[in-house]
Amino acid sequence: ILRKNPPGTSIIRQVFQHYVIPGTKVLLEPGAKVLIPVYAIHRDSDYYPNPDIFDPERFSEEAKRTRHSMAYLPFGDGPKNCI
């Protein structure tokens, strides 16, 4: 349920130091805001084939091990995680 209907549809974070996004030449400056589109990530077929289908097996221990660690963010992540 939380994958299909996350309590927050996006997360906004502020950059505190210069950061180059890995694999790119994109430089994030201090003070920049970054939006993480949780709703879109949770419905990305690269992470969740047939994303509109409810499939509890997506959250089996085996599936969790093979999924990107940031592909499921129902409550955010990091020091400002709400739970």
UniProtKB/TrEMBL annotation:
Cellular localisation: Endoplasmic reticulum membrane; Microsome membrane
Gene3D superfamilies: Cytochrome P450
Protein name according to UniProt: Cytochrome P450
Chief localization: endoplasmic reticulum
Similarity comment text for this entry: Belongs to the cytochrome P450 family.
Species name: Bracon brevicornis
Coiled coil (UniProt feature): none
Keywords for this protein: Endoplasmic reticulum, Heme, Iron, Membrane, Metal-binding, Microsome, Monooxygenase, Oxidoreductase
Cofactor: heme
Membrane topology: Peripheral membrane protein
GO CC terms, sorted: endoplasmic reticulum membrane
